[in-house]
Design brief:
Elements lengths: L3 E4 L3 H10 L1 E6 L5 H12 L3 E9 L2 E7 L2 E7 L2 E8 L12
Antiparallel strand pairs: 1-2, 2-6, 3-6, 4-5
Length: 96
């Protein structure tokens, strides 16, 4: 089971990471804070100070088109914001 799914790379999250050393990740919905902390420390070789998690639930999306009403859904996911020790950074683009 892979705990870290993808990093969150948005303007807002980039500004937060540059300012306060906090990084965002999409994580497995069943993972707890301890598992997330261990996965980040193992993958990026940093010391994690704090982990905050947020659950986002799936939403139903509806579009009205020429072919009629089309109904879909946006999937549920869990987001984790991880704070690393002062002086340490995570380079999210090193593996590209």
């Amino acid at each position: 089971m892979s705990i870290l799914k993808a990093p969150i790379v948005t303007e807002k999250m980039t500004a937060i990471s540059e300012k306060s050393g906090r990084y965002g990740f999409i994580v497995d919905r069943k993972a707890n804070k301890i598992q997330i902390k261990e996965a980040v420390e193992k993958m990026f070789n940093v010391n994690v100070v704090n982990v905050n998690t947020m659950n986002y639930y799936g939403k139903t999306k509806t579009r009205y088109t020429k072919a009629g009403v089309q109904v879909g859904s946006a999937g549920a996911f869990k987001k984790a914001v991880v704070e690393v020790a002062s002086g340490e950074t995570i380079d999210l683009f090193s593996n590209i």
